[in-house]
Specification:
Length: 458
């Protein structure tokens, strides 16, 4: 017996597909069978399994668990909850691996799997090798057991461990995603006044799509904060590993701005700590970390890549523009939107300033949203290489950590190939509107030389 995954299912950071098209029960079973075999051959005996609230997740979970037990390992079913609860189970329970069934922030007909192996992210070459092993039918046979446990209370308690924050009036928007019940439990433990939106899990996402990095998805939260004069508001994506924040005036706080707040707090106790941000983050963030006495490190975009770099460097804090925030000072080093919310409460208490005050004090920069434009998968990396070659020949001030990031006296622009879509991704930031237009023109000129026309943004 063998299985071939659709090639688009095997992504760089995790596995994602369209249910009924590129993803189905057979894929979930084959994943369980293959991953279980890897765990067993590494000397492990159990894998934790969680799922989000998408309509297809129960079906995929049933097939995945069957594949795991047929490989001879035990399946620890933790049930419906956010991805960080699965990470928590993998860190705290006697299991060698973990799999979360989740479509994250993708459209509701999508789903997939996030994997952890030996307390490390399982991605990139690991996923490609897993695909080859399934295609070869290189599987163990056995009869593992299934155990079902409820970890929600233990997870919420862990979020509160060491809590030293004050009481605030906060809005919470779970977006009908998997974080909803955990948000309800967490806010019962926190001091202050809490106003909750859309904590009922509903895979139809009837109110708005659960992606707080998109401004339009924060409209309900902004209205809640402004209408009730709350101190600030937080929102989560579909599986709860990302956070979005708005201040008391309803202004969005981007992922890199949020990381700046956390950096100031962490560096008070850990001077000189390395803090990682992805290549899409503002230069103002890297400058701020350095001014606070930290060591800024720019790294590749992608939650798995960031987590691996943290382990390699011993970094205590990291983050991405999209709202993945990683704490390794008093936490496990994985991305957890709910824990980030708790740490925000603690940070503003320790810093003695409101979220609104901290937002107002940040440098005024003008920038584009993340720009995306379709380019064939076979061409996108070649375009970036061509741009890099031309820039080097021009003597540009260049960082090629993840694509091409060009720095000038008045701003910067970034061009990189998406690891999850047939697209190029760009971002431009400058000190004023005139500089922004000039840098956008530079980007467009480079794209045109490689035969690419920018046609859309999001």
């Amino acid at each position: 017996m063998t299985h071939r995954f659709h090639p688009t299912l095997l992504r760089e950071y995790d596995m994602r597909g369209v249910v009924g098209d590129t993803l189905g029960k057979a894929d979930a079973y084959a994943l369980g069978r293959t991953f279980g075999t890897l765990v067993a051959r590494a000397g492990g005996s159990a894998v934790a399994v969680g799922r989000d609230g998408r309509l297809s997740s129960p079906m995929l979970e049933t097939a995945l668990v069957r594949g795991l037990v047929d490989s001879g390992v035990d399946a620890l079913r933790i049930g419906l909850g956010p991805t960080p609860m699965l990470y928590f189970a993998q860190a705290e329970r006697d299991v060698m691996g973990g799999i979360q069934i989740t479509g994250s922030h993708n459209p509701r007909d999508h789903n997939g799997f996030k994997l952890v192996f030996q307390r490390r992210p399982f991605f990139g070459e690991d996923i490609r090798k897993l695909g080859g092993q399934a295609a070869a039918g290189d599987w163990n046979e056995g009869a593992g057991r299934i155990e079902t446990v409820d970890l929600m209370d233990a997870y919420a308690t862990r979020l509160m461990q060491g809590f030293d924050g004050g009481a605030f009036r906060i809005g919470w928007d779970a977006g009908n995603g998997a974080a909803g019940p955990a948000v309800e439990k967490l806010t019962q433990l926190l001091p202050g006044e809490h106003h909750l939106l859309f904590t009922d899990i509903d895979g139809h996402f009837p109110h708005h799509h659960p992606d707080p990095s998109e401004e339009r998805n924060l409209a309900d939260l902004k209205a809640l904060v402004l209408g009730n004069k709350l101190d600030f508001g937080v929102a989560f994506d579909g599986d709860g590993d990302r956070i979005g924040v708005v201040d008391g005036k309803g202004r969005t706080i981007q992922g890199d701005q949020l990381l700046s707040i956390f950096a100031e707090d962490v560096l008070k106790d850990r001077p000189g700590a390395t803090i990682i941000a992805d290549v899409k983050a503002s230069q103002a963030l890297f400058d701020r970390i350095e001014a606070l006495g930290g060591r800024p490190l720019m790294w590749k975009t992608g939650h798995s890549l960031i987590k691996s770099k943290m382990k390699q460097t011993g970094s205590l804090l990291a983050g991405e523009m999209t709202g993945h925030i990683f704490f390794a000072d008093d936490y496990y080093g994985f991305d957890d939107g709910l824990y980030a919310a708790v740490r925000l409460i603690r940070a503003i208490t320790r810093l003695g300033k409101s979220v609104t005050e901290l937002r107002a004090a940040m440098p005024k920069m003008v920038n584009t949203p993340e720009l995306r434009f379709p380019v064939a998968d076979s061409r996108k990396f070649a375009v970036v290489d061509e741009v890099l070659a031309r820039l080097r020949a021009m003597g540009a001030v260049l960082d090629d950590t993840d694509g091409a990031r060009v720095r000038t006296d008045d701003g910067w622009w970034l061009l990189r190939a998406s690891n999850t879509q047939d697209a190029l991704v760009a971002r431009v930031e400058a000190r004023d509107d005139a500089a922004l237009e000039r840098l956008i023109a530079e980007l467009d000129s480079q794209l045109a030389e490689s035969g690419v026309i920018r046609v859309c943004s999001e």
